[in-house]
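Field guide to reading this record: the first block holds the primary sequence, the second block holds the structure written as discrete tokens, and the final block holds curator observations. Each block starts with its own label. This record concerns Regulatory protein YycH domain-containing protein, catalogued under organism Companilactobacillus tucceti DSM 20183.

BLOCK 1 — SEQUENCE
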Amino acid sequence: MKFSRLVVQVLLVFAVVTSVVLSYFIWTNTARYQRGRNVDVTTTESDKNKIPINQVISPTQVIWQDGNDQKLIYNNEENISFSVQNVMSDWKFDHVTKIFKKDGARYQKTIQKHNDIQLVYPTAITVRTLGYLLNSSVLKHSTDYSFNRIIINLNNKKDKNIYLANDNNYAVYKVGVRDASAEPILKLAKKSNIDLKVRLNLMKHGVFTFYTEPIKMRTYSYVIDEKQDSEYTTSLFDANSDDLVTSQDGDVYTYNYSETKRLISDHDRGELTFYDYTDTSVPKNKVAFFQRGYNKAVNLQSSVSNLRLYDADFNDKDLVFREYVEGFPIFKKSQFGSIKIGFSRNGTTEHFLNKVLEVPVPSSNSETTLKSTTSILKGLDKAGYSVNDIQDIQAGYQWESESENQDVVDLTPTYYIKIDNHWRPYQEWTNESAEEG
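BLOCK 2 — STRUCTURE
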């Protein structure tokens, strides 16, 4: 018996030492984050399900007019826009009424009113889509107007309405609400720990958010998740690898499954395109359009917590998704964002990137101070671009791979400018830095 106990004790000591050694290698090797996706294979599907559609299709800016200044606010410990949506999901809504349309002067006054909160979507959604996201049966059956701003009055208790505003046609709609209080929303606004003064200006190509002063933005670093082509062919084709026909042209690999599906993978650019010629049904209404786009996006990537709907064109049946950090979009070396979904009678097309943010890691870089928007416009004018040339301008993050570690990317703050339908960092348009000198 003494011998048996001795054996057991020796085995226990060996197990503990082995555990310590393994833990050391795991925690001192950044590649652990790459392996993490494989370890969590059994929970991948459930993790996807934890990212609800009203988080992916949600406002990315919260603008608060506190009676003195208009400010873009954010709380890096709590997603304010998502929390406001949760508050609104308990409200009772009435049908939507149009107030006015195509009146730029009146529209500008509306979006600059005092004592209100604006939830701003990067692209227009619709009333029935909002009803679906908030689970409101009344809104689900209302006239399906498009909008990209929700305006909530925080001060006038006699005004029992919220307002939906559309930057594209300068339309404003009124929605009556019951069982509603602005107090929880005001509390969320006061908890913000990022506070940037802004001014909303009507320009030729829409409403631009101007930062009236230089702004400070944090720099981030992330370990990225990168899949092999075989992982995509397994999930997208749902077929035996023996049924695939593979061809190669330089760094571009093409995988065909009979004549029904095709995957093209550009290893140099890190971009993939998937064609499904069997999926020929086109969404007939906008709610189905958003639902199907969301489902395809989350099926493509295992990590979608940072993903947001960025642009949607119901006429062309295209949706674009981007990754966001603290309310600011991440721009990569592609013109389509992170994921682009297209529906047609000939089948669906899915463009996506092979590199996805996985795990944040400590960054040695401090805050970056960017110039005011007015200074950026002056720089563009000096470079030969007039205000009317600018289709959009946004403060965001530039995706930059680390030279020492290809598994890590740095997210560097800068302005991105859209001219001639191309997004490029300010420096590429002007040869000047967007940082405050």
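BLOCK 3 — OBSERVATIONS
The chain has four domains: 2-49, 57-202, 217-222+361-430, 225-357.
The chain has a mean pLDDT of 86.
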